[in-house]
Specification:
single chain; globular; 6-stranded mixed sheet; alpha/beta
């Protein structure tokens, strides 16, 4: 199953829509969001456009956490957490300093995080850590990642370079 890995949207609906349209063209209808969606309208837009979404809260959210409960397709993990996906343990957090707390819950195969706005993939001690960058295009070019939970493939994408 393929997932769009997104983070730091900061209510940039133009970039979000371009990413979602590209995802649809690739038959990707699931997401993992590393936080900083920002407002309730953007949260609703995500819920309306993904079959399943895993989500952590970023440091700049301005929606009420009670909003999330409205959406049955959002698996909300709070500030950080883990979930299982096709035999892999996935950790999720916004700020990278929460990765240690994620690993205290359970050893992970992958940890996705955001906050720095810098797209990054690294493997250390059999754990892949990846930051999809900023879909909002704040401080860096707008970017996201694609993760294939079956093959294990992980690829970073720069939004302006994709065909929409």
């Amino acid at each position: 199953m393929k997932f769009l890995i997104i983070s730091d949207i900061h209510d940039n609906l133009v970039n979000l829509e371009k990413c979602l349209n590209w995802g649809r063209s690739q038959s990707i209808d699931n997401a993992i969001c590393c936080g900083d969606i920002a407002n309730a309208e953007t949260l609703k837009y995500l819920a309306d456009n993904f079959k399943t979404m895993y989500l952590v809260r970023g440091n700049l959210e301005i929606y009420d956490e009670a909003e999330i409960k409205k959406y049955k397709n959002i698996n909300y993990l709070g500030r950080f957490g883990i979930f299982e996906l096709d035999g892999k343990t996935i950790g999720l957090c916004h700020e990278p300093w929460f990765m240690d707390k994620v690993l205290k819950i359970k050893k992970c195969d992958l940890i996705f995080y955001g906050h720095t706005h810098e797209p990054w993939v690294e493997k250390e001690d059999d754990v892949i850590t990846a930051n999809p960058g900023t879909l909002g295009g704040v401080f860096n070019k707008a970017s996201f990642a694609v993760y294939d939970s079956v093959s294990g493939g992980l690829e970073l994408k720069i939004l302006e370079l994709i065909d929409s």
